[in-house]
Design a protein that fits this description.
With 349 residues, the chain is α+β, with helices and mostly antiparallel strands. It has three domains: 164 residues, no CATH class; 141 residues, no CATH class; 27 residues, no CATH class. The strands form three sheets. Strands 1, 4, 5, 6 and 7 form a five-stranded antiparallel sheet that branches. A hairpin with a 2-residue loop joins β2 and β3. The longest helix has 24 residues. It is globular, with a radius of gyration of 26 Å.
Length: 349
């Protein structure tokens, strides 16, 4: 079971006393902690009514969103939540999950104010997760928004178990009005909103071509829609995706953009072998070889299948930079034996 937890008003609820204790526990010097707390506690807010500023409110908790320092301080606070989950896993009350034998065991992942918890879908595990979250809430002031939290179950989980766990998933669809927008305004809206919505999913998964075509059809219909005239598409979408210098509008080709984002994931895997995602994917898909030698495999996950689709694009733009020669493979013609350059060093120059 995968629990996706959303923290309600994450930055606004951080208790200053908790932040001070966390920094002290992590070993920060007292003088440094005093300077940080001075920056945090010297904030004041005012109201603007009809263009005039009124009043002054001094908060007693919370971090100012938009301040570069606040993001790092919030990460320090969430480290205590990680410690609670690690302690529960070490005690055996929460079982860690591994995708395969030899892969790192994972109990939780954190991204900004979102928390993902991985645990068995049993009635004995969920109360332990709730105790961990309640403990974190009492200490830090953070509160889980149950209306925005969701659960994803394995297909092997019985349906009655899902109902007893009692976590709902709500899908919200938000529309936008286009009646009063010019084509210039529609262009900005398509570039900034419509084509940006699927970007996060496309950076991790290869979306079906039919779905990408639906996105493009939605954007095209929105752009050419007119209340007083017939909806005629005067220009092909492929040409509209060209740059403005080439007569287009600079819209994204979503299929090419999807592959580019997946190729970027390959670059991250190549340059960050110490990352958790690299260790998990390597243990599952290429445990005894290099990333460039990896294959799709017999039963690949959707994540690996998606990333692997960008392998040809990624390799076509890669070049080896000669170093010690321990990782570079040398070969002239297809069918000839391949050797590492370090093995050929005895041949001299």
């Amino acid at each position: 079971m995968n629990l996706k937890l959303d923290i309600s008003k994450a930055y606004d609820r951080v208790e200053w006393s908790f932040l001070r204790k966390v920094m002290d526990k992590l070993g920060f010097p007292s003088a440094f902690i005093d300077l940080i707390m001075l920056c945090v506690s010297s904030v004041s807010y005012s109201f603007v009514l009809s263009g005039s500023q009124f009043g002054s409110i001094t908060p007693q908790r919370g971090l100012h969103q938009g301040d570069p320092l606040s993001s790092y301080l919030f990460l320090l606070c969430t480290e205590s939540l990680c410690s609670l989950f690690r302690a529960a896993a070490d005690r055996g009350t929460i079982s860690r999950v591994a995708v395969c034998r030899g892969a790192p065991s994972i109990s939780h992942l954190l991204f900004a104010d979102d928390t993902m918890v991985f645990c068995p879908a049993t009635l004995s595990t969920v109360p332990v997760v709730r105790i961990v979250l309640d403990t974190y809430k009492l200490a830090s002031g953070q509160e889980i928004n149950l209306h925005k939290s969701s659960a994803v179950f394995s297909r092997n989980t019985p349906w009655d178990t899902r109902l007893v766990l009692g976590i709902r998933l709500e899908n919200k669809h938000e529309g936008w009005q286009e009646k009063s927008l010019s084509q210039a305004g529609k262009t900005v809206l398509i570039q900034a909103v419509v084509q940006a919505i699927p970007s996060y999913a496309m950076s991790c998964f290869k979306l079906p071509k039919s779905l990408l075509q639906e996105f493009q059809a939605l954007a095209a219909n929105f752009f050419w829609h007119d209340e007083d005239r017939r909806r005629i598409h005067w220009l092909a979408w492929d040409q509209m995706c060209s740059s403005k210098l080439e007569g287009g509008l600079g819209f994204r080709n979503l299929e090419a953009f999807n592959l580019a984002l997946l190729a970027k994931q390959l670059w991250r895997l190549l340059t960050r072998p110490e990352s958790l995602v690299y260790q998990v994917l390597k243990a599952k898909n290429f445990p005894h070889s290099h990333l460039f030698d990896a294959t799709l495999g017999s039963r690949p996950s959707y994540t690996w299948r998606s990333i692997f689709t960008a392998m040809n694009l990624f390799c076509s733009g890669c070049r080896w930079r000669i170093g010690t020669g321990h990782r570079l493979i040398f070969g002239k013609i297809h069918g000839y034996p391949v050797h590492y350059l370090s093995e050929l060093s005895h041949l001299g120059h």
